[in-house]
Amino acid sequence: MQQQGNAISESQLEALVAACVKAAEFSYSPYSGYRVGAALLTDSPEPVIIPGCNVENCTYPDGCCAEKTAIVKAVSEGHRRFLALAVTIAIQGDDHPRMCGSCRQVVAEFCGDQFPIYLVRYRDRDCQMVRLGDYLPAAFRPSILAQDRSAAD
Fold first, then answer.
1. Is residue 26, in this structure, part of any structural domain at all?
2. In angstroms, how far is the first alpha carbon of the chain from the final one?
3. In this structure, what CATH number is given to the domain that contains residue 63?
4. Percent of the chain at pLDDT exceeding 70
5. What single DSSP character describes residue 96?
6. What is the pLDDT of residues 97-148, one digit of tens each?
7. How far apart are CA 69 and CA 42, in angstroms?
8. Which of 21, 73, 111, 115 has the lowest tally of Cβ within 10 angstroms?
């Protein structure tokens, strides 16, 4: 498993990759067959891995992406700070997965520009690490809302 940078330890990365691959197995994707898994590593005294999978719905917009599932689970369990995210899609292709823009924005709600995202190729578990700021430049962040409110006063 190849890692770029030292965002998290090799053992943490291995566990994160295993968790996102396992999460893809739980995907509910009867319409697209597109099984996505994500795993989020919390920034806490004892880091925890929170997995998530995509959950489709017959009314397509009402489904939930794997990345959002992991973040919602983490936040609902009291976590707000994160060390890394791993994402995979259960296909055998040569490309690394890509996150949708909506999921990138949800990650930006809680994480800064240097936050590492590991895009995991399912067939061989190869990781491509990207930083959130490169993956979603000029993200809309909570601080922008605070600036907008103060300007209106």
1. yes
2. 52
3. 3.40.140.10
4. 92
5. P
6. 999 999 999 999 999 999 999 999 999 999 999 999 999 999 999 888 887 6
7. 14
8. 73
Kindly report the pTM of this predicted structure. 0.91
Annotated binding site: 54-60, 65, 100, 103
Q: Is residue 83 part of a domain?
A: yes
In eight-state DSSP terms, residue 113 is: T
Asked if residue 104 lies in contact with residue 64, where contact means CB atoms within 8 angstroms, the answer is: no
Which residue in 6, 10, 75 sits closest to 40, CA to CA?
75
Asked if residues 49 and 41 have their Cβ atoms less than 8 Å apart, the reply is yes
Domain presence at residue 101: yes
Pairing outcome for strands 127-131 and 36-42: unpaired
Q: What range does the domain containing 47 cover?
A: 10-152
Cβ within 8 Å of residue 11, ≥6 positions away: none
d(CA 135, CA 116): 10
Provide the annotated binding site for Zn(2+): 65, 100, 103
Instruction: Check 25, 46, 67, 109 and give the catalytic one.
Output: 67
Q: State both tokens at 131.
A: 């930083």
**Rounded Cα gap, residues 87 and 20, in angstroms:** 6
Domain count, the chain: 1
Residue 2 belongs to some domain of the structure: no
Question: How distant is the alpha carbon of residue 38 from its chain centre?
Answer: 6
Q: Is position 46 annotated as part of the catalytic site?
A: no
